[in-house]
Amino acid sequence: MAPTPIDPVFVREPWHDPKAEPYIRIEQVTKRFGEFVAVNEVSLNIYRSELFCLLGGSGCGKTTLLRMLAGFEQPSSGKIFIDGVDMSDIPPYERPVNMMFQSYALFPHMTVEQNVGFGLKMEAKPKSEIADRVADMLKLVSMSQYGKRKPHQLSGGQRQRVALARALIKQPKLLLLDEPLGALDKKLREHTQFELVNLQEKLGVTFVVVTHDQEEAMTLATRIGVMDHGRIVQVGTPKEIYEFPQSKFVAEFIGSVNVFEGQLIDDQSDHVRVACPELDCPVYISHGISSAPKATLWVAIRPEKIELSLVPPAQQENWARGVIKEIAYLGDLSVFLIRLNSGKTVRVTRPNRWRHEDEHMTWEQEVFLHWHDTSPVVVSA
Ligand code: ATP
Questions:
Q1: Number of the ligand 1 atom closest to the C-alpha atom of 56
Q2: Would you tell me how many other CB atoms lie within 10 Å of the CB of residue 281?
Q3: CA 231 → CA 54, 56, 73, 210, distances in Å?
Q4: Three-state DSSP state, 344
Q5: Atom 24 (ligand 1) nearest CA
Q6: Proportion of the chain above pLDDT 70, given as a percent
Q7: Phi/psi at 91 (nearest 5 deg)?
Q8: What percentage of residues in the chain have a pLDDT greater than 90?
Q9: Which atom of ligand 1 is nearest to the CA of 67?
Q10: FRET partner for 202 with CA separation of 20 to 30 A, picked from 31, 168, 215, 327?
Q11: Cα atoms found within 13 Å of the Cα of residue 114, Cβ hemisphere only
């Protein structure tokens, strides 16, 4: 008999399935410290086996939200459910949760094996079971040959893997990670991000990761919740957040973006036309906007979605004229800062696909900027 086909969208994207039961349900949770509101009316669903990233600047409330999931802080109001159970009266040690701290908090006097097996020893598991499970965990994180070392004899990346093995050995259903890669340098971070994703996919454990690093969130996450001043301002897949930011804040927080103030001059279900005083002609966008537009709105265009040419483009809309003011050669791409007639500076990036790609573009040269009508998005203030 042919196997029953599994709908990949259902498996990978349960948030699109109205029948899918969230693993974590955060309902209108607020946390106050005295007068200060650290987390403000957050409602959020996270599904089983997700790698969900809470992303935001320093002090936006992401660690406080994570600590409430772990049970180290209690919400001032609102409720948290894990696997359908109200967590209000459940202490941290009875939750199906483990937390990996930013500092990794390894015991310095213990070997790697002892660190990883510590939780099982506390549960008075038999020695042989501890030894077997520690060996399995060290294999999983590719640290088998380092079992007898102490933490100070390891690199930052190796310590991170030991901390992960220690957090996973008790087979939590939910692992909370606070800036898990914060202590690693850029190269090692990138490498470890992929390792973390592979490990999470292999184990199917639900991960909630706090990070202030947008690239890290983009690499790791099934979905990202962007936080600002205690609120979740947008939730979506990395692509949704990058390509369709809902607000100026999200557009500017994730990657670079050019933002133009404008007035709606034509509003159809399949396109809109926006007059932007800083540009020479209207912006035509090939999708409608769902919310009732205000008189003033903002058009956001990513730097890599703008083309440069030395001759005027044939199109009537979606172009501007400017002068090259800065060029930064970054190896894989070059960044151009272009001053428009209106005085607005626009950032454009171009990949260096061949060695002499941008040699014909130079400082103070007049250039034409143009973009496809799927490139701009309308965002709120
Ligand atoms: P970072 O990336 O800097 O760690 P964060 O987004 O994780 O920031 P939180 O640690 O959640 O931020 O803190 C949110 C706000 O709540 C901050 O302004 C912080 O000073 C405040 N805060 C956190 N814990 C307490 C506390 N125990 N008492 C008073 N204020 C607190």
A1: 6
A2: 14
A3: 11, 10, 17, 14
A4: coil
A5: 64
A6: 93
A7: -70, 160
A8: 56
A9: 11
A10: 215
A11: 10
- The pocket around ligand 1, CB under 6 angstroms, is made up of 33, 36, 38, 56, 58-64, 212
Could you tell which of 30, 31, 36 is best to mutate to test the pocket of ligand 1, judged by most ligand atoms within 8 Å of the CB? 36
334: amino acid identity, one letter: S
Strands of the 223-228 sheet, one edge to the other = 97-100, 174-178, 206-211, 51-56, 223-228, 231-236
Domains belonging to the chain, first-starting first, are 14-96+172-248 (3.40.50.300), 256-379 (2.40.50.100)
CA distances from 59 to 55, 64, 123, 203, 227 (A): 11, 9, 36, 31, 10
- What tokens does 191 get? 């490498």
Residue 366, pLDDT above cutoff 50: yes
How distant, in Å, are the alpha carbons of 201, 219, 341 from that of 189?
Answer: 18, 11, 42
Residue with the nearest Cα to atom 29 of ligand 1? 33
What average pLDDT score do residues 210-223 get? 91
Angle at 41 between CA 230 and CA 80, to 5 degrees: 105
pLDDT at 12: 58
Question: Residue 88: pLDDT above 80?
Answer: yes
C-alpha 347 – ligand 1 centre gap (Å)? 34
**CA 56–ligand 1 middle distance (angstroms):** 12
Sorted by sequence, the CB contacts under 8 Å of residue 19 that are 6+ apart come out as: none
Summarize pLDDT for 316-346 with one digit per residue, the tens.
899 999 999 999 988 888 999 999 999 999 9
Q: How confident is the model at residue 201 (pLDDT cuts 50, 70, 90)?
A: confident
172-182 pLDDT per residue, tens: 889 999 888 77
CB within 8 Å of 87: residues ≥ 6 apart: 69, 71, 79, 80, 81, 95
Distance from Cα 318 to the centre of ligand 1, integer Å: 43
Atom of ligand 1 at shortest distance to CA of 64?
11
Residue 157, pLDDT > 90, answer no
Cα 305 versus chain centre, distance: 21
